[in-house]
Amino acid sequence: MSGMVIQARPPRRDETTAHSPIGADRTDGPSVRIGALAPLSRPGWAEAGRHLLAGLELAAHEVNDAGGIAGRPLELVVRDTAADPQRAAAAVDELARLGVAALAGEFHSVVARAAATRADALGLPFLVSSAVLDTLTEKPTERVARLAPPQSRGWQIYADFLLGAGHRRIAVAAEPSVYWASGTRILRDRLAARGATVVELDMGTLTAAAVCNELVARRATVLLLLVGHPEPAVPIVRSVRGDRRLAEVVIGAPAGQPEFAEWAALLGDDGAAIPFLRYLPERLGPLGARVGTALRERLAEAPSFVAFEGYDTIAVLADVLRSLPSLTSLRSDGADPDRAGIAASWPRVAVEGTRGEIRFSRTPGIGVWQWAGAPIQVVDRDPAAPDRFRVLHTG
């Protein structure tokens, strides 16, 4: 979904090495290997990475329990990107040498862009799970597909939500980043076209207290957090919530910081009523409900939309792999698999995912194969029960 960097708990175990999902012993022959990228350690958003990996692994387990890929086990080869674009590009090189059939995953947009650019150069198909930055590759490519909606679509919907609520003076507290700059531009273009104003607050120079003074001086009715979590997002929220002058100011976080449990743990009631974007339908169908229950058991907490994105990623790749005319070239001994055949399959995908039927198409201005039907919600944590989410707007 994003390019933000936060501190979070490191993975519970060594999740950066190759491993086969449970059920692999029910299949025969060499494994079909998928490279999986996720931020699993600092300074990456490790909580998001943990949810992403849980979804990837659950789907792989289920594929193997159902007989694998034409009787062969599906194996995830996991690499921790730690929110580092160079580390991600190096992981792509390594995974390509290991003979993976395709790449899956990643959460941070700037990291996914580096990985996608390198994968495209190597001829390695990549199904991106969560990163939303519109420009994932330097030029249009047939090899990369994406499940998450592009940032321009999601953040325009968020801007429409603000306008519908009557807001016309919006302040944006932003850190330097390609991702945050892109988000600011999308918001400004959408809001300015309808008579609203956007003021940028440079978090490279301002303290949380100074942000409060700026909001008063600018008479802003909304403060959007385009910053990392927990620093400086948490101190900013605490300062604004504690300033009586700003009792009517709405805090927003379009990038989704309030989605995860750590947000609620750190901020308590102060973390409620902060609208953010998430990519779930209003109601999950039977598959989504079943997967949601399994993910909750695996994570020991409510699954985020990122976990569902991970599950859907493997569901799509498994369907694509099963559709190949022959699996004889899919080997785990370093030989090149049928990567061209996988990439050529994107426009033929029609898979029931946890959040709707997944099909890829070409979207104007987007250089990768895009799931255009990804659901988008604006939600917040209910002040009456911060563990419960309220759907405020859909797009």
UniProtKB/TrEMBL annotation:
Pfam families: Peripla_BP_6 (PF13458)
Keywords: Signal
Region described as Disordered: 1-30
Gene3D superfamilies for the chain: 3.40.50.2300
Source organism, top-level taxon: Bacteria
InterPro entries associated with the record: BCAA_transport, Leu-bd, Peripla_BP_I
Domain Leucine-binding protein: 31-363
Family that this chain belongs to: Belongs to the leucine-binding protein family.
Protein name (Swiss-Prot/TrEMBL): ABC transporter substrate-binding protein
